[in-house]
Specification:
It contains 8 helices and 8 strands; from the N terminus they run βαβαβαβαββαβαβαα. The protein is α/β, with parallel strands linked by helices and 226 residues long. The protein has one domain: Alpha-Beta Barrel (TIM Barrel), CATH 3.20.20.70.
């Protein structure tokens, strides 16, 4: 795994530990590392902003102890500024917050950076107009376009969000990245790539497979970058 996916412009596959077996999390992380995942994605859910509760800083810290990989922490929570310091202390490399939970997304991005977050991301749900994130684009390092309604792993990919990805792509600088999360597998990853996506968050399509190396190789093959 890489310690900084921003150093490459090649497509990157992020393994989402939401679908990992938490009873053997260290082994699961080591396995996807050997299998060729580029970095790790951690979906933090609070049971308030999204209808599920996943994990918090404790699991983030445990993940940090067993890997040097870049930890891309997706805060699906109502108060990102309140909890950001705990996740940064736990070892998060990047924090992504939702535009839906803030009145001033650009200011939220600046505050996260002031807290010490080196890589700040912004994301939006499928029902949110893409224009809502535009005022914050100069303040972030990457944009995450959700291709499912967030809350649970294993949902069906929503192709109707692809025009949003295309609209964002046109506005990004060369050093910014476009990420997509939700229903990404071998039948959908090429659609996302064609819309301009750089980073692909993959959960069940990796962790539900017995041979994770083969699963990741298949995904790369669909991108034309095995």
């Amino acid at each position: 795994m890489t310690t900084n996916p921003f150093q490459s412009t090649a497509p990157q596959i992020a393994a989402s530990i939401l679908s990992a077996d938490f009873a053997i999390l260290a082994d699961e992380i080591a396995d996807v590392d050997r299998a060729g995942a580029d970095f790790l994605h951690l979906d933090v859910m609070d049971g308030h902003f999204v209808p599920n509760i996943s994990f918090g800083p404790v699991v983030t810290a445990a993940t940090r102890r067993v890997t040097a990989a870049f930890l891309d922490v997706h805060l699906m929570i109502s108060e990102p500024e309140r909890y950001a310091p705990d996740f940064l202390k736990a070892g998060a490399d990047g924090l992504t917050f939702h535009v839906e939970v803030t009145a001033d997304a650009a200011q939220t991005a600046r505050r996260l950076r002031q807290m010490g977050c080196r890589h700040v991301g912004i994301t939006l749900n499928p029902a949110t107009p893409v224009e809502k994130i535009f005022p914050a684009l100069d303040e972030v390092d990457h944009v995450l376009v959700m291709s499912v309604v967030p809350g649970f792993s294993g949902q069906k990919f929503m192709p109707e969000v692809l025009p949003k990805a295309q609209a964002v792509r046109k506005r990004l600088r060369g050093n910014q990245r476009l990420e997509m999360d939700g229903g990404i597998h071998s039948q959908t990853i090429r659609q996302a790539r064609d819309a301009g996506v750089d980073w692909f968050v993959v959960a069940s399509a990796i962790f539900d497979e017995k041979d994770r190396a083969a699963a990741i190789a298949e995904l790369r093959g669909c991108l034309g970058s095995v």
